[in-house]
Write a structure and sequence with these properties.
The protein is α+β, with helices and mostly antiparallel strands and 318 residues long. The protein has 3 helices and 12 strands. The strands form 2 sheets. The chain has a 6-stranded antiparallel barrel. Strands 6-7-8-11-10-9 form a 6-stranded antiparallel barrel.
Length: 318
């Protein structure tokens, strides 16, 4: 529409009529003369408004979601943090229970052997001394640890102390190639020397080349003068292979150690040896053999055997 004098006059007239209708509607209240027109307009334009509302509502929901997204993100982050803390606590509790179990078993072994031990925890693997198989423990001179003390855990012989600091010590593990310990066979008392071979079984040279040895035989430490570096009776391992006797002065055995050297955690340093040799009392109980089931089949003559059928046929002929 062009901006002319007539258009401006028409606009003023329409505005005046609108104000007049509003005034009449307000003064009329429920009996307003324009109430019928309002209902007619509602009936005509209601479906259109409803459609527009349906189209606009998702947009409004999206706007609300964006507005609340910051709060929801903060809540989600808080829940994730609580979940991580709970998992860490459960993991810590599991580790604590595992250590308590190891400590309990180690104290039981020390009690059976009458060893006075100082408990310690493995805090590092390897050392600056160049040893291939060593660990560092959190106990040292301030805890009464001295060089050449036996180290054990709940399973048996771990190694011996080689270097001592004020609060830490280095332990040479029994599977290190530079490690050697005197051993004694359970029952037969055959003596020998076990040497480490890294991740392979220990190699044992028996002093008696004609000794009777078989797979499954067990060994303990023989002990040293004044219990240094080894106290007697500590479980070493189980014979896994025996080399054929070639008539030599010694006989070679291969022994699977009781201790898992790649998963050490809680250990004990023997600070006081036993008053007497515990012999084989510290060895774990032997597993009971599982009986092999046998099936006995008993065959007895019956009506279905050929002999019975022949006998029946003969009787019928008679």
């Amino acid at each position: 529409m062009r901006d002319t004098k007539e258009s401006r006059l028409l606009l003023v007239l329409l505005v005046a009529i609108a104000f007049a209708l509003i005034t009449v509607d307000i003064r009329g209240g429920r009996n307003s003369p324009v109430d019928g027109a309002r209902h007619a307009a509602a009936a005509a334009f209601g479906p259109v408004e409803d459609g527009l509302s349906s189209a606009v509502d998702p947009v409004g929901d999206a706007v609300s979601a964006v507005r609340d997204s910051g709060t929801r993100h903060d809540r989600l982050a808080a829940l994730e943090k609580e979940n991580a803390a709970l998992k860490a606590k459960l993991g810590s509790d599991d580790r604590t229970r595992s250590r308590l179990k190891q400590l309990d078993r180690m104290l039981k072994l020390a009690g059976e052997g009458q060893y006075g031990i100082k408990g310690a925890q493995v805090i590092a693997i390897g050392s600056a001394q160049g040893f291939s198989w060593t660990i560092t423990i959190d106990a040292g001179a301030d805890d009464g640890i001295r060089r050449d003390m036996t180290v054990l855990n709940a399973d048996g012989l771990v190694g011996r102390v080689t270097t001592v600091g004020p609060g830490t010590s280095t332990v040479l593990l029994a599977n290190d190639p530079d490690f050697t310990v005197g051993t004694r066979m359970e029952g037969s008392d055959e003596l020998g020397f076990a040497s480490g071979q890294g991740d392979r079984p220990l190699r044992v040279e028996l002093l008696n080349g004609k000794a009777e040895v078989k797979k499954g035989d067990r060994l303990v430490t023989f002990g040293s003068q004044a219990d240094k570096p080894f106290v007697p009776g500590v479980p070493v391992g189980v014979v896994s292979r025996v080399d054929p006797s070639g008539g030599g002065l010694t006989r070679t055995l291969y022994v699977t150690p009781y201790v898992g050297f790649t998963k050490l955690d809680v250990v004990g340093v023997v600070v006081q040896g036993p008053k007497k040799d515990p012999r084989d009392t510290v060895l774990p109980a032997k597993p009971k053999p599982i009986p092999t089931p046998t099936v006995t089949v008993t065959v007895s003559p019956g009506a279905g055997t050929p002999q019975s059928d022949n006998a029946t046929a003969t009787n019928e002929q008679q």
